[in-house]
């Protein structure tokens, strides 16, 4: 008999959404029946449907804190999970991680698994806010059987903050598809032609959602401060898209910045980049960095969370402090001014990726986690606890 697995995520987009969908698709059909539950999504939902995964959209499941919609989403998720009687509920992202795990506990799911793609707290928040998030996660650990942490630093922080017990947590790499396009003179020319760039342009590129986390204003300021007149290509939309465009104009970068919005042809565009840049304030371990490295593009990124798993300073890339546009500008100037060194970083990074970030590796890990330990904790032994203190 096949195990029924619910994969729950708030926004099925970008890196976390890709990991959730790839995880569902990595499971053998003869042993698992997957359902993807999302608050919203993009083409990833279509890809899941096309591959035979049932998709259920719960519009009430949104990222911002909204007591009314959150209560409604929790009620819908609980009733859905009771009706479907899932053997495993696997949650992703902060909001779905809270509501999905509480709903799973209330509905008597066999196993509850949560992937830590990062954390909802970071050093730029007020301390009371961070403390509240940590307390919520600690309570949720009582009803969580297993954690998957995307990156070493994420796993370390979960253990250090007593969110996950040591035996609960497994470190994984964010699974990405095998590269369909890698860097070569031909792919570089084709990518630049698609973007209207010339062979002689110095190109800094990035892929990501334009929001506070990604700090797009820091990357713009860095481009403006660089000694070399590089062009910036940003692939991805988001709530700050208009603000970023206005800032680029104020900085006099209008003709040097290409804001492409959402694109489906990212693998074709990556070879156009001389350097892949990431200016995030906080992260887990972005799939976009792994994809750039697999393509053969050198990376300059902020030294946050698990990014150093793949960007080792001076070996497989360069790291800078977050929110420091001057340091980021200097690092980008260095990478562009030392192409042989940057190429060596890219070669080392691609070689070290190995099978850790492969979908097959993720599938094997999920099968082991879903099966549970030799003597798994039974659902009846778990006390359903609402993260804000109310008993279920």
Automatic annotation (TrEMBL):
CDD domains: GT4_CapM-like. The lineage of its organism: Bacteria, Bacillati, Actinomycetota, Actinomycetes, Micrococcales. The keyword Glycoprotein does not apply. The keyword Transmembrane does not apply. InterPro entries: Glyco_trans_4-like_N. It comes from Intrasporangium oryzae NRRL B-24470. Keywords: Glycosyltransferase, Transferase. One of its GO terms (molecular function) is glycosyltransferase activity. SUPFAM superfamilies: UDP-Glycosyltransferase/glycogen phosphorylase. Residues 369-392 are annotated as: Disordered. Residues 16-177 form the Glycosyltransferase subfamily 4-like N-terminal domain. This is Mannosyl transferase.
């Amino acid at each position: 008999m096949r195990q029924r697995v619910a994969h729950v995520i708030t926004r099925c987009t970008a890196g976390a959404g890709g990991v959730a969908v790839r995880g569902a698709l990595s499971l053998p059909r003869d042993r698992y029946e997957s359902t993807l539950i999302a608050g919203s999504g993009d083409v990833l939902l279509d890809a899941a449907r096309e591959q035979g995964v049932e998709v259920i959209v719960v519009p009430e499941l949104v990222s911002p804190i909204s007591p009314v919609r959150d209560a409604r989403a929790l009620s819908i998720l609980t009733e859905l999970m009771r009706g479907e009687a899932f053997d495993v509920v696997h949650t992703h992202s902060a909001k779905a991680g809270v509501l999905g795990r509480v709903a799973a506990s209330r509905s008597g799911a066999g196993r509850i698994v949560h992937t830590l793609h990062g954390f909802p707290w970071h050093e730029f928040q007020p301390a009371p806010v961070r403390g509240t998030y940590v307390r919520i996660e600690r309570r949720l650990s009582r009803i969580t059987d297993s954690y998957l942490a995307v990156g070493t630093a994420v796993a370390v922080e979960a253990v250090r903050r007593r969110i996950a017990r040591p035996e609960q947590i497994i470190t994984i790499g964010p699974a990405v598809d095998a590269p369909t396009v890698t860097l070569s003179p031909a792919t570089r020319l084709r990518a630049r032609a698609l973007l209207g760039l010339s062979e002689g342009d110095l190109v800094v590129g990035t892929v990501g959602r334009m929001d506070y986390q990604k700090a797009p204003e820091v990357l713009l300021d860095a481009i403006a401060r660089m000694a070399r007149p590089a062009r910036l290509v940003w692939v991805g939309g988001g709530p700050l898209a208009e603000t970023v465009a206005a800032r680029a104009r104020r900085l006099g970068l209008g003709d040097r910045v290409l804001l492409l919005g959402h694109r489906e042809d990212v693998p074709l565009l990556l070879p156009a980049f001389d350097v892949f840049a990431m200016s995030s304030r906080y992260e887990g371990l972005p799939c976009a960095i792994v994809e750039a490295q697999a393509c053969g593009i050198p990376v300059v990124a902020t030294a946050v969370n698990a990014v150093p798993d793949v960007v080792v300073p001076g070996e497989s890339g360069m790291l800078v402090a977050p929110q420091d546009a001057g340091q980021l500008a200097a690092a980008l100037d260095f990478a562009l001014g030392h192409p042989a060194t940057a190429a060596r970083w890219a070669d080392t990074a691609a070689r070290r990726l190995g099978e850790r970030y492969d979908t097959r590796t993720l599938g094997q890990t999920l099968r082991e986690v879903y099966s549970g330990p030799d003597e798994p904790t039974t659902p009846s032994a778990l006390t359903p606890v609402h993260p804000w203190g109310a008993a279920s």
